[in-house]
Task: structure prediction
Amino acid sequence: RSDDPLSPSWFGKIHLSASAVRWLLLGGWLFMAINNFWKIPLTVGMDYEGHTQYIYTIANNWRIPLATEGWQMFQPPLFHFFTAILFQTFLPIFDHETVIRIIKLLPFLCGMAQIEICYRVLRFAYPQRESHQVMGTLFGGLLPMNLYMSQSLGNEPLAGFLTGLIVLFVCRILSGNLRSLRKVSILMGVTLGLALLTKVTPVLVILPVLFYVCAEIVKRSEAIGNGIKEAARFTLILTGIL
Result:
């Protein structure tokens, strides 16, 4: 905002809110999706053959393949299961190449969703610093790796989207919103479980999430004993759902 005393002097001349930047980025991504739908070769991306083999195996047999059946079959199955359903749904309507391009839209939508998550996380992190929100949203929305991976067939964008939701939940708790802690802990447990069913790397956020959330619960509790009980309850719910 131009009236924000903490913003740099140049920011007041732009008159562009973080929300507007978010919408501009989402519009740019949508334009890119339309422009690149037919232009990008299907094989562009990491491990394309391995992921398509995984999808075909599920779509043809409706079972999760063993890790020994292919060089990407060790991956958790959630992304490939969703895309196998899309593959079988659209295959009677479109040709094979078009169906593959359609299911590539799932990673792209996950990449777009991460822009929204980035914007909302920054609102919690810098509630009085709109200039930081603008710059952070721009940075998050234009990350080269996200731009690249979201236009290829793979489970990374979905895992990134679900992990980003976990970070957003944590920011909400750290901002002082503890009134719906039980509901949030259930949502976090479900989301983290889905993330682990997409890719194993989200396991790295479990300990930091538990540490910072439990510390915040104890810190804001009127009595340490009650805070420890609430933190233990939060941990049991989250890990129990996993």
User: Anything to note?
Assistant: The longest helix spans residues 105-125. The CA atoms of residues 138 and 209 lie 25 Å apart.
